[in-house]
Description:
Elements: E1 15-21, E2 27-34, E3 40-46, E4 49-56, H1 59-83, H2 87-98
Antiparallel strand pairs: 1-2, 2-3, 3-4
Amino acid sequence: MLSTPVIDSDVHPSVTLWFETLSTGDTARLCIRSSELPEVDVAFYWNNELYSHRRFGTKEEAEAWGIKFRDVLRQDTVAGILLGYDRDVLERLQENCSAAS
């Protein structure tokens, strides 16, 4: 289980960069939170549970990665619609989501 980043959410609220509902009914959300640290936190939620956490040097880097990640998620979703989802596809997607940097 992943631990939640230690940032005061009242002082530094997160912003949802994107939210997707897959054809399987699963949901995916990517949130970005800045802090007084020189890094920007990015949290990926799968079905409303924290699935992975990354840090980037700037908000721009975090957003660029987040958009690329959403594109990968959407490509897998299109493949799932066309080919039918199976457990291997979902496991591969989740492995991509949880890779830490």
